[in-house]
Amino acid sequence: MSVLYLLSKGSSAKKDGGRIVIEKDDQLIGRMPIRALTSVVVGPSTTITTAAVYACLEAKIPIFFVDKKCCLLGQLADDQATLPVIRQQFATLEAPALSMQLARSVVAEKIKNQYRLLKSYTRTVQNQQLTKSLNALKAERNKAGSCETEDSLRGLEGSCARNYFAGFGALLDNRTWHFKGRTRPATDPVNALLNFGYAFLEREVRIAIIGQGLDARIGFLHSNNNRKDSLVFDLMELFRQPVIDRFVLNLLRMQTYKLQDFEKNDEDECRLTDEARMLWFHRYEDYMEKPYQEYDGLSPRQLIQKRVEQFRQEPLYPLKSSK
Fold first, then answer.
1. Overall domain count for the chain
2. Taking CA 170 as the corner, what is the angle to CA 257 and CA 126, rounded to the nearest 5 degrees?
3. Whole-angstrom Cα distance, residue 270 to residue 185?
4. Coil, strand, or helix at residue 143?
């Protein structure tokens, strides 16, 4: 199973029997069986025929339309959320104690993931900043359960994020990668990779949510900050460190990218060059489909799907299966 990225300028996709034919500037690039696809990502300056769209929708393959930064603009997908599930999700959202308990559990898991990722590098990296970040996260990782308000929970989340990214930067060669913490939009290559990765993670989580018959619009952690699909952003917090940050660290520590693989636009925003983005697509798909021992033999994509399925079944989110 694989993802079709239709992002290169002049590329197109059309249906031919049970396959999708990919061309660029009228030259054949390849053919993919429709049944082998998990999703299709379509960028600007590309074309996908109506017949290909129909074939994907009939096979329940979601199609995502993205901008030049690979940020989602819209989607075509088989939304399986039923009215009873939507009502139950609203009931959770409208019960302050329950939604707060869910928010605490997600933030607590996120902080533990931050600690685990940094801790996994202590055998090969030893410096004061990494130790300092680990000590700070260790002291705070159990505090989420005692937060009584959204403001206190967000304050804890912000404090841990600052400590975590200070440790994250300590894992990089500071002679090349001058990472001073998170910035949005990206002002440096490390943030450019993280932002790019989180855009990909959004689609992965969205697919898992759709597959579980949940309504992506109804969340509990990001429900009051004008996020359009708050449940997607809520559950993304569970996978930023173990999936995307881990991948980005590997790319940088293995010197997959160089400084020349990045450029700045007219707004001084740092981003990957066209060639560097193509390299990302290949490395990312290889990574997302490969089983890892630390995920109990699952691939990162399977990990996301399994964890979202577990979330749907957790007592804190009491949704009866409508399947």
1. 2
2. 115
3. 8
4. coil
